[in-house]
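Hi U.,

Before I forget, here's the chain from the pilot set. I'm dumping it here mostly so it's searchable later in email.
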Amino acid sequence: MHKKVERNLATKMLALVLAMILWLYVMNEQNPPIDAAFTVPLEVRNVTTDFLVADAPESVRIKVRGPRNVIAGLQGQEIKSFIDLKGLNEGRHSVKVNAVLPTNLELAEISPDKVSLRLDISVSRRLPLTVKTAGTLVAGIRLDGMTPAVEEAVLEGPKTAMNQVDKVLVTVDLSGKAADFAMEERLLPVDQQGREVEGVIVKPARTKISLALSQEQVRKTVDVKPAIQGDLAAGFSLRSVTVDPVRIELRAPAKLLEKVDFVYTEPVNLNGVSRNVEREVKIRTPEGISASPATVTVRVQVGPTGE
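Structure:
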């Protein structure tokens, strides 16, 4: 009886082993292990706030191996990659790339398995804005002034990049402009050759700039004509009226001066005058025109009538 029980147990064990072998065979045939590759973001761990990481790739490629049904349902975000910068100081380093996988997957390959990066000290500084113009205004228009909304910017970035920054540049396009205008432009950190320095953050990133335009001023020399009014004293008559200087310079936009060949003085009042008069009077100019000098001397000679 005892031997019969032993034979039955041995038979059952053999059957169980054969069943497991058959199951593994079937599973391997029906759900074989396969490879799959994923591009995943590279996480940076244990870097202090005093440092900035430069030159590290944003992602790496990870190849995994696992059952086909598991691979088919796998989401890329289930796979993680990271580098650990704990204890590293300023400078260049070669750092191992680590992977975190679901438990039923096997790591086949990480590419690259090491990354070269640089740890830079994070610094900040303030710089005034340098405004540069590009393009050409409409003919006869000139630029009178540019006023940015902010006068300086705050720069933040790695020390090696910040050391390259010469100025914060704002470029304004004047092409075809004929009247006052305003625009919002980007602030660029540039080196001494005017090239943008990468890796530097500028705050604010953009600023509004107001520009004042006017018509270009031209000069023109014209005659001065004296103006008189009123009646001399009884028995006296006008002998001569002269001005000094006889010609002055006018300044104004070209269109305003096109038809101006002379100007008058302010009137000299001769009411009741019985002797020579010398007075300094202003020049009368149309609106938008300025005179140099702005005053002249008018000399009036009078004498008894009949002499």
